[in-house]
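Instructor's aside before we start: the two examples that follow are unrelated to each other. I chose them only because their records fit on one page, so don't look for a connection. First example below.
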Amino acid sequence: MAPKSNLKGALFALAAFGIYATHDVIVKTLGAEFAAFQIVFFSVLLGFPYVTVMLMRDATHGNLRPVHPWWTAVRTVATVVTGVCAFYAFSVLPLAQTYAILFAAPLLITVLAIPILGETVRLRRWAAVIAGLVGVLIVLRPGAEPFTLGHFAAMTAAVSSALASIIVRKIGQEERSAALLLYPMVANFVVMGLALPFVYKPMDAVEFGGLAVIALFAFLATLLVIAAYRNGEAVIVAPMQYSQIIWAAGYGWFIFGEKPDAPTAIGAGVIIASGLYILFREGRTDTSRTAPNLQGRGRIETGTFPRFGPILRRRR
């Protein structure tokens, strides 16, 4: 195996998360006019060709029948919920605020590792989790600002994304990668398709083109994240996900006229610091059973694009 280049890995990751942030700008723009169900449906539909290209290189023998059907079903439901809630939150909340809340997902993974993986979380990691959740409260500022459906959607997306991720850690070594990739996308396609007649609004060529760009950007960013983890150490690459808050602040300011306020900036700082602490703790192989899964850290899983963790495992 070629030696790791952390600089190259970090640059690939920064480029990937910049593309993801641009992807979310388009989601937010379209979300002002169209329902999240419609955006998710067409994002999945237009993403299938890219996933097909990825899976054509999968030489693993077997079928798509899950080894753990109940865990797979729970993960699939969690992923569908994440997709709708995250896309809706991006549509109605400031970008920086949405990211700040979604960044709580790694903290929640640490909590869910206790009942699902049987992991022991020691005092310092508990302190980091509690500090991060305090950061979420700073962003939400209950009592000072109205708690909207968008805030609830972002929090739900963080919880359901954490649940989907921790289930992959539990069953991922035994399930075929193709199944882990396809079930959430197919479920999204079916569920959003059933809802589509009730929310559909006609789209012009530019708006539909925006959906095509969402699918393309998700595919390109996934490839870049894979390249990042193949070139750099996970403990260097994983924290690059937090660069999205910088993109969100810039895009929010210049495109949507959103000026991040002090509570959002402070809360995001606390959440990111807590998440970084946990990431680096997990990078120590003597600390956590989840350390080998550090490569799965990054983008929340919405079921509209391939999850890069299973692809990484397949290519190793």
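Example two begins here.
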Amino acid sequence: MKISRLVGPGTSEIVDVADPSPGKGQVLVEVLACGVCTSDLGAWLNHDAAKPPVRLGHEIAGRVVATGREAGRWAVGDLVTGLGGDGFATLAVLDAATILPIPRGVEPALALGEPVACLEEALSRAGIGAGDRVAVTGLGFMGLGLVQLAARHAPGLLVGVDPDPARRARALALGADLVFGPDDVPERFRTGTRETEARFDLVLEATGVTPGLGTAGSLVRPFGTLCVVGYHHTGDAKMDMELWYKGATIVNGFCPDRRRMLAAMADVLDLIAARRFSYAPLITHRFGLGQVDEAFRTMRAAGPDFVKGVLVP
């Protein structure tokens, strides 16, 4: 098999290694698609060349080519997606208990289970209801996915906030009612009184940067909810103390539990099968296995035509 390894800052190499064998309760899949995730960007930028190579890729969709003992519910030829790693490769071993079938007729690259399961699981804990006023701040892949997922709950108002006009246009196409740049959000959405409250019942933060977190906090109504879905591994990520004075509920959108993630993944795959969620407008760039570094460079540049990249080995 071939696998991409990170060997230095922004530098990957393709190597040939022996094909792995699935162990007890595992399956071996031919990787048909693997998403390129922003959570791996730090490793790609900063890997110490003096340390052992690192294997990346955890948003896997593929075809089962072999099964281990106690993985009998899966058969060779099944198309699956799920939770795993080392996906920037031609083959990958996955636990049989953490994969699900790709809906019939759906291209594997448009059925990556892990990334959208993260969004759905966070949303499931945010308490969204029909008629709620909902804002999504940050309209990259995560934010645009949240717009689609939130829209199915019939919010009374769904607003997107992002500085990029192209992203705002995509949000409108995917179900947002209104979109604004961070500096152009009408004042009525930031301040309010008991008589004229226009702030939001639920704000879904997907910027991953501290200024975006501040914008999100300013939009929450008293006793509303802020769900932090963005990936905040850099910066100080300070919370606006006004949230405390407003009695707001803050939901940590990260989920460390595989069972909850798999349940959310099953829900989203059902939505994909029913055509109520689509990756098609979100997967804007495709790369070969030898183009891992180009994929990360493109993601980091985040031009107006970019939402998400996927490797198709």
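The two ends are 11 Å apart (CA to CA).
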